[in-house]
Specification:
The complex is a heterodimer.
Chain A lengths: L6 E6 L3 E4 L4 E4 L3 E5 H6 L1 H9 L2 E6 L3 H8 L22 H26 L9 H14 L38 E5 L4 H13 L3
Antiparallel strand pairs in A: 1-4, 1-5, 2-3
Chain B lengths: L4 H7 L4 E5 L3 E7 L4 E7 L2 E5 L3 H6 L5 E3 L2 E5 L1 H10 L7 E2 L2 E2 L4 H15 L8 E6 L11 H14 L3 E6 H9 L7 E6 L4 E7 L2 E8 L3 H12 L3 H10 L9 H28 L9 E6 L8 H12 L7 E6 L6 H12 L4
Parallel strand pairs in B: 1-9, 9-10, 11-14, 14-15
Antiparallel strand pairs in B: 1-2, 2-3, 4-6, 5-6, 7-8, 11-12, 12-13
Classes of the chains: A alpha+beta, B alpha/beta.
């Protein structure tokens, strides 16, 4: 078996950790770099990782090996490992052609936008005959309603519909209530009614 | 010469006013010699069917509904006190709750008893509705109005909704050509309307009134709202509170009056450009909450401190002739006009 190249950074996450087989003793927050091959053999490190007392980070290892190490228990597992199939070779020439075409398109559109921004707005020419035809067709389609010429009438949305039961009172219930009745001779209601009548008749 | 009952009946002007408040339902009708008002407490109490015997012994009227007994009106309040319970109210904060179907039915019964049968076919009935509250945007006045219209129609009347505070203007400001600021300090809400020559320039309500005073004072002294309400109704001099309870009530009264005056200034600022008031107008205070002892002087005292910043020139501040019936009377004035049209 080939020795695995690379380094592993071990960071202590607890008050103190002692990795005897690596000869490393760390306090909280302290970190140390050890060879990847030694780290992979270390049972103390594996145990510490399972306990969550250390955090490890693989450096400069080959991609596959580093991935295997970062996933837990890879060194102790005896089962055959999954080898991903090698990717099929891709011909990049057509893709590059498409990218180049798109880049050209974007460049030309940018130039067009810059020109439009600089140029004055074009004055539209309205043929009076065409305009008359268009307007007459619109008025012919419009519903026949009086047109407000001097004021803008704001439109208000109708109130939300409210459900109220068809019958509210139960005719079978006939309560005898203690209704307090009072007769007032001078309530001012007559005078008020008379004045209101005259105010309403008066031209405004 | 005294008129016979038939002549009296003929002379009676049809049309009636109906004030549907959180605390009372009041109707007003014209008689030959004056105005007759009828009032009932807007409250009910549900009791189990087993209480029937006890209610009969106590001579309390009730209605049997399915497996329960309903006590309505003033009797509900009295019985609730005996049982140590709170009577329920069909209206909460001035409006019918859409989720309380009981409330709708009970309110219908109360209104039917207060209105009685119409004197003519489809007699006009003007009923009070609050303006939309400025401090409770979600409150549904439309539903409230719709339910009341339906109930009154079921009673055989032709319903017309009228603003509660505007009704005070109609009842109390005839000599000023229906110009003034009407304030209805009710139980669930305080309604405000500003009018010039019958034209409504501003109307709104705030969700603070008598109930707010009771609950606020109760919280501050560790008591119950119903106890504070009873204390308030028993007699309270706002200008000379004697006990801690009375001091708490006075504190909340002051807060309410200040809040209402501030809200008028605030709301008026929004219509100022569209509405001109060429001469000073009166403020009319009305409603059950304004019945507290010394309320008018108290109100004047609070207003005087804010007069400089108040946007409308005020000629005088006076109490309504009959604060409990002013809204119903104002609605009656409007209903009577229907006979001319």
């Amino acid at each position: 078996m080939q020795p695995v190249a690379g380094e592993v950074t071990i960071i202590c996450l607890t008050d103190e950790v002692n990795l005897r087989d690596l000869g490393v003793r760390l306090t909280r927050g302290a970190k140390v770099e050890v060879p990847l091959s030694a780290a992979m053999k270390s049972r103390d490190l594996q145990r510490a990782k399972v306990d969550g007392t250390v955090f490890t980070q693989t450096l400069r290892a080959s991609a596959i090996r580093a991935h295997e190490y970062a996933s837990s228990d890879t060194t102790t597992s005896q089962s055959p490992r999954f080898q991903p199939p090698a990717p099929a070779p891709v011909d990049m020439a057509p893709l590059l052609g498409v990218v180049q075409a798109l880049t050209e398109e974007v460049r030309s559109l940018r130039a067009e936008v810059t020109l439009l921004k600089q140029a004055p707005a074009p004055v539209a020419y309205l043929d009076p005959e065409v305009l008359r035809d268009v307007l007459s067709s619109i008025s012919a389609q419009a519903p026949r309603q009086p047109v407000a010429t001097h004021q803008i009438v704001p439109t208000q949305p109708p109130d939300d519909p409210v459900f109220i039961p068809e019958r509210i009172m139960d005719d079978s219930l006939k309560p005898s209530l203690d209704v307090k009745s009072h007769r007032a001779e001078a309530s001012g209601v007559d005078d008020a009614a008379k004045t209101l009548r005259s105010v309403r008749k008066r031209p405004r | 010469m005294a008129k016979s009952p038939t002549q009296e009946a003929q002379a009676i002007i049809v049309g009636c006013g109906l004030d549907v408040g959180t605390m009372n339902v009041v109707s007003a009708r014209k008689t030959l010699t004056g105005v007759e008002t009828k009032r009932v407490r807007d409250a009910f109490l549900e009791l189990p069917a087993e209480s029937k015997k006890m209610l009969k012994l106590a001579n309390v009227s009730y209605v049997e509904r399915e497996d329960e007994l309903l006590i309505l009106g003033d009797a509900a309040m009295d019985t609730a006190n005996i049982f140590g319970r709170e009577a329920r109210r069909p209206l909460s904060a001035g409006l019918i709750s859409s989720s309380d179907l009981d409330a709708m039915e009970i309110l219908g019964l109360l209104i039917k008893n207060v209105l009685g049968a119409p004197r003519a076919s489809n007699e006009h009935c003007y009923f009070s509705i609050p303006a939309a509250p400025v401090d409770r945007p979600g409150y549904d006045v439309i539903y409230h109005r719709g339910v009341l219209e339906k109930i009154i129609r079921e009673c055989g009347y032709t319903p017309t909704a009228g603003n509660e505070a505007m009704a005070i203007i109609y009842a109390e400001t005839a000599k000023e050509n229906f110009s003034g600021i009407g304030l209805s300090f009710g139980s669930g809400m305080t309604n405000v309307a500003l009018a010039m020559n019958t034209i409504e320039g501003l109307s709104f309500s705030v969700a603070r009134a008598g109930d707010w005073i009771d609950s606020g004072a109760a919280k501050s002294i560790g008591s119950t709202a119903s106890r504070l309400c009873a204390l308030k109704e028993k007699g309270l001099d706002l200008n000379a509170p004697k006990t801690r309870d009375q001091e708490a009530l006075t504190f909340y009264y002051r807060n309410l009056v200040e809040y209402v005056i501030d809200q008028i200034a605030l709301q008026f600022a929004q219509v100022q450009g569209r509405f001109s008031i060429p001469k000073p107008i009166p403020i009319i205070v009305s409603g059950g909450t304004s019945k507290a002892g010394g309320f008018l002087e108290f109100f004047k005292g609070v207003f005087d401190k804010k007069r400089k910043k108040f946007p409308v020139e005020i000629s005088e501040i006076r109490a309504a002739t009959d604060p409990l019936n002013a809204v119903a009377n104002g609605l009656l004035v409007q209903a009577m006009q229907e006979n001319d049209e």
